[in-house]
Amino acid sequence: MTTDEQIEAHRYAHAEADMTKSKIWKVFFYLLGLTAIEFIIALGFVETGLIEKGISVIVVYILLTLLKAFYIVAYFMHLKFEVKGFKVMLAIPLLLLIYMIILVFIEGHYVGMFLYK
User: 55 with 40, same domain?
Assistant: First the structure.
């Protein structure tokens, strides 16, 4: 094994050691809490009419989903323990995807204004 391979193996073993059972359960309960918040918003507020379903509710759902995706990727896929360059390499396409979703919403609203007059 070369020195670089040894360093990488040590880094991976360190990441594995950081994921204790208590940390896994902690992340699980964060994810459970975020899912509960989504259900409370959907079934408790939107369905009963306390909050009107609209772009603000959709934005909240997207933000909660992205937060859940971060926890899954960071802890269960061990991305939290990766080097900064790899994180940036994954973050840039994610930001471009979010930008594209925003543009699709804007374009859909613009087209809808003229189709359904």
Answer: yes
How many domains does the structure of the chain reveal?
Answer: 2
Residues 91, 75 within the same domain: no
Rg of the chain over CA atoms, in angstroms?
A: 20
The model carries a pTM of 0.56
Tokens of 117: 């007059």
CA 35 – CA 33 distance, rounded (Å):
5
Task: Give the confidence band of 78 by pLDDT, cuts at 50, 70, 90.
Answer: low
Q: Which domain holds residue 59?
A: 1-82
Please, are residues 23 and 31 in contact by the beta-carbon 8 Å criterion?
A: no
3-class state of residue 1 by DSSP: coil
